[in-house]
Amino acid sequence: IVTSVINNFPKSLISIDSFRSDVIKTAVEAGAAMANDISGGQQDPLMFETVGALCVPYVIMHMRGTPQTMQQMTAYSDVVKEVYTYFSERIELARTHQIKDIILDLGFGFSKTLEQNFELLGMLDYYKNLNLPILAGVSRKSMIYKTLNTTADQALNGSTALHMVALQKGAKLLRVHDVKEAMECVQLYEMLQK
To answer: How far apart are CA 174 and CA 54, in angstroms?
Structure first.
């Protein structure tokens, strides 16, 4: 699939979302440009070594447990500080494996309650101290549609509102479902910065 996309859309930059190092390796060798790991290297002991050897940007996301168990793992004494500590440790380990381009994803919706998601978003600028780009993935998440008592299909307006908040708090990348609307949000944010 990666090769087919690149052949048909040669200017495309493909990000591979996997917590398996062999999948990342195969996809990058086929032309993918970036690795995105929801487990931050915790599910596959070869992930950091593999990504370091491939020399591609790497998204480290925060999550506890697995996608099957994560929603039972939402007990934190201080979610903001514990996620910060997690990133500090994962970044240090990634650097020992020669991973140079690291992007942080706080993992909205992954092993966090609705309230914890909003607390993290409200404190997103706290993570700028780590001196790495932050990716915000809030688009159409349950934190939006549950708060607004609607559905994911009806969460575009809420997604756009939180995209602006994320940008104002320091996010450098947005993971979105609605590209045109997100680009409009970015364009308006950039005008605010002038």
So the answer is: 24
Structure tokens at 96: 């020992």
Q: Summarize pLDDT for 114-136 with one digit per residue, the tens.
A: 999 999 999 999 999 999 999 99
Report which secondary-structure segment, H or E, holds 136: strand 134-136
DSSP letter at 16 equals E
Instruction: Kindly state the average pLDDT of the residues 175-194.
Output: 97
* Cβ-Cβ contacts under 8 Å for 162 (sequence gap 6 or more): 121, 136, 138, 144
pLDDT at residue 1 in the model: 84
Adjacent-strand bridge partners of 59 = 36, 103
Distance CA 44, CA 33 (A): 20
Q: Which active-site residues does the annotation give?
A: 141, 175
Q: How many CB atoms lie within 10 A of CB 78?
A: 10
pLDDT digits (tens, 9 = 90+) for 12-49: 999 999 999 999 999 999 999 999 999 999 999 999 99
Contact 132, 91 (CB under 8 A): yes
